[in-house]
Amino acid sequence: MKELLERIQTEGVVIGDSILKVDSFLNHQIEPSFILKIGREIADRFSGERITKVLTIEASGIAVAMAVGLALGVKVVFAKKGHASTQTGDIYTAPVYSFTRQEEVNIFVSSKFLTPHDAVLIVDDFLAHGQALKALVDIVRQAGSVLVGAGIVIEKQFQGGRESLQESRIRIESLATIKSMREGKIEFA
Amino acid sequence: MKELLERIQTEGVVIGDSILKVDSFLNHQIEPSFILKIGREIADRFSGERITKVLTIEASGIAVAMAVGLALGVKVVFAKKGHASTQTGDIYTAPVYSFTRQEEVNIFVSSKFLTPHDAVLIVDDFLAHGQALKALVDIVRQAGSVLVGAGIVIEKQFQGGRESLQESRIRIESLATIKSMREGKIEFA
To answer: Are A92 and A142 in contact (CB under 8 A)?
Structure first.
């Protein structure tokens, strides 16, 4: 997706060799019409598949997931972090380790919103080490739903998330794949 | 907004006298096309106003804020919780006490995304005690932006958020206003 690659190149800020900040259009500020385009592109990559639900994780995934849900005409579920006191009933839960924040959090999804009748497309803003995606895959399995695949906006290939998910045989489609960010230079695959 | 009131009445789950769960369409699962309608309605309430940016707080506010941003054709900024290690540069920050989670968290917005040239509409899913809204108002003031008002999906009037914000003279538009939830019965104002 050309416009995405250009914006990553011009607006992205590389910190160290592994952190990419795209706060100006994806993670802190968003341009809704651009997010819609991203959502349509992810939906297109999975056209022909039967998808009944989009699953993401709060917070940065929500806008993109909503755009994919709009394009597909299906509901969007976002896995929540922690365990709010308002949560009642059966839940599916999985741990996620965040390398950026250096902490483990639990995410959960109410069993009401994912069932064995669902065919689920996971959507997220980043694929780095694959921790969040692994937890979402785990939740889809717990629910007994069909896992259609994962649509990712930016994949940082050099952090190995895709390989670490190989045994789950999940189809992963990334709109932008970054091979390296050495010396602050973003190189696409 | 009739459809919203109906869904709150049929799908909302009241816990105790003050917690309302609308997980099936607003806070955990969303129906993107319905969220678009909510966004359009909030945008309509402020038609005629010059708005350059929508401001919300992660996580549940993001979907609705994106819908408002789409309707208005402006960018959306979401205040982030905590202080990620990727955050650099100047920020505006304010504390928010969550009665639901019984903890205080700091929220922050990068100074790059709110400036004195901006006219800001705050958007959030709930107005209860007004803690989150107060913090967002504080951040708009710190940025020196013009505060146009706040568009809220569900206001729980009996928790006094609107009164607690009276001195800020902010215009608040709520699509659904709940007067009482005593004995599990939702009464609209």
So the answer is: yes
